[in-house]
Amino acid sequence: MTPQEYVEEVLRLVESIPEGKVMSYGAVADALAERSGRNSSRLIGAIMARHGGGVPWHRVVNSAGRLPPGHEQEARARLLSEGVPFRGDHVDMRLM
Q: Per the structure, how many domains does the chain have?
């Protein structure tokens, strides 16, 4: 899989995350690891930062449920409107 194909697969997977659900950067990487030969949550974060504006970017959080850096307020509002459970300022990943 070429780097551009990988970006497209990441965006396709993020687009498929249902409303009211989230995935961690690591879960996205794991889901594509076998087909792509890549497995880096940091790479997923970089792809989302550069190319994620057209997909539901707010549904991708870190493994502790922290929201995308610099976009916490907007992500929280969007996720709350979708019924995503929070524990303080983080998504409650135990319930996801």
A: 1
**Which residue has 């970017």 as its token pair?**
57
The Cα 26–Cα 49 span in angstroms is 15
- 0.85 exceeded by the pTM? yes
- Tokens for 92, please give them: 């409650």
**91 lies in which domain range?**
3-95
- The domain that holds 89 is classified in CATH as 1.10.10.10
CA 45 – CA 60 distance, rounded (Å) = 9
pLDDT at 96: 86
Query: pLDDT tens digit string along 43-78?
Result: 999 999 999 999 999 999 999 999 999 999 999 999
